[in-house]
Design a protein that fits this description.
Strand content of chain A: 5-15%
Number of strands of chain A: 8
CATH architecture of the largest domain in chain A: 3-Layer(aba) Sandwich
CATH superfamily of the largest domain in chain A: NAD(P)-binding Rossmann-like Domain
Distance between the termini of chain A: 48 Å
Helix content of chain A: 40-55%
Largest sheet of chain A: 6 strands, parallel
Oligomer: homodimer
Chain lengths: 267, 267
């Protein structure tokens, strides 16, 4: 824990004020750095318009976007299996989903189904990737090169969907300069800000022990990161304009617990 | 990879047939081993009856149980903050959820709200823990003592909600006999079956490289495990009567990606 504490206080001292730090990555700079993706952003707007979006995306809940991810995973599987079209009912039956929910979730973003046909698998998959922002490579930093950080750095699913794990960051001297088994370099946490700017990082994943999660999040925000995925337990606070998502791995175990409990009371 | 392969083929050979193995843990044995929890199971039935359950739990989707977990997390937070009652609308506003969805999800299990009052936080929390089967300790094995397995073994959230991580299992000689930083012992994967029986394990978490996930799942099923949480990428097949849940960590990154994409197209 000691290395984290001294490294964090050093880094905060060096980064003058948060406001100063943030000015390293002002809106125009950010947009300029996105030139390569501009074409695709414009395309998405056009598609969007032609699909009569019904609700501004700010009102789309995280539960909805989580479901869109699930639908995308299903469509990937269908596409790989050579399925060309599928109805919402077919999707629901095959993947134990809710057909009405599928239709409602997709309706936020346009009209994708064709009466009498259902959804074209490839097309809906392409739309979902676009809606989820997966049509460009997002650059990710993982803070914390412990077991969880190292596991996440080499997690095959991330790369597959277009996320690029650019670097790990840690405070322990014996880790800095090495790399994960998959070849992700481990940087000094003190260099988070310059590396974020140089490498144009989009997302920081926090995988440090709970007491260091908030200072690490503050540091990521100072460095100009706009989206944080937190695996450390406990609530974090980030300023408006920064999106925070916390992953609670307990949820998945609890769904099994539910099943076992029902099995018992029925058997 | 080599240690996994030879260990798995050994273990499968030694476990005679899957049917034989399963008979080590027949229904009556399982129920007998649950004596301590019986009182609570009965209590839950009574509560349940008095709450007029509207749908058999088999029809409750995983998305619903995932949401119940989320509600439980919210109620934990409210309870810790000293909040005594809250309406579905209050819950929704405070935690960015959907009030109608909350009411619908809870209605599967009974009538928990009180007109003019809303939900009693402590009481609803207790009900949700019971519904999710968290009112007894569930015993968990983690298969794979790599970075992910070791991280999961010491993940603080599991213990907090009543899961007991009994052991890790691996095929690598240099790991067997050691333990995780948090003190979870690493067993030989070949001993999965006797340890499962002796320790009365409920859930197996799979955190091995993708090519070994299916043989490891088969082994867990042979050993009598009835619920599997899979972190390895790719689809697994388990026989009927065994509950499989796969965790895709990509989903959480995609929800951030969604946010960043919308931010860009709006800014």
């Amino acid at each position: 824990m000691a290395p984290w504490e001294s490294a964090l206080s050093d880094a905060v001292r060096r980064s003058s004020s948060a406001a100063d730090a943030r000015s390293h990555r002002t809106r125009p700079f950010y947009r300029a750095s996105r030139d390569a993706a501009q074409g695709r952003v414009v395309a998405w707007r056009l598609v969007n318009r032609s699909h009569k979006r019904k609700q501004p995306p700010e009102q789309v809940s995280e539960l909805t976007t989580n479901r869109l991810s699930v639908y995308l995973r299903c469509l990937n599987e269908l596409d790989a299996a050579g399925v060309q079209t599928i109805s919402s009912q077919g999707l629901a039956t095959r993947f134990h989903l809710n057909a009405a929910q599928i239709r409602k979730d997709l309706a936020y973003f346009g009209e994708f189904g064709v009466r009498g046909v259902g959804y074209y698998v490839k097309e809906l998959r392409r739309h979902l990737r676009k809606i989820l922002g997966l049509d460009r490579r997002l650059r990710v930093a993982i803070i914390g090169a412990g077991n969880l950080g190292l596991a996440l750095a080499d997690y095959p699913g991330f790369r597959q969907e277009g996320f690029e794990i650019v670097g790990l960051f840690d405070a322990a001297n014996e880790k800095i300069g090495h790399e994960s088994r998959g070849g992700v370099p481990i940087h000094d946490i003190k260099d988070l800000e310059p590396v974020t700017r140089r490498e144009r990082l989009d997302i920081a994943v926090i995988a440090v022990p709970a007491p260091h999660a908030q200072p690490v999040a503050d540091l990521a925000v100072s460095a100009g990161i706009k989206a944080i995925l937190n695996f450390s337990p406990g609530a974090l606070v980030v300023p408006e304009g920064v999106k925070l998502k916390s992953v609670d791995l307990t949820v998945s175990l609890e769904s099994l617990s539910f099943y076992l409990a029902q099995g018992d009371s029925h058997g």
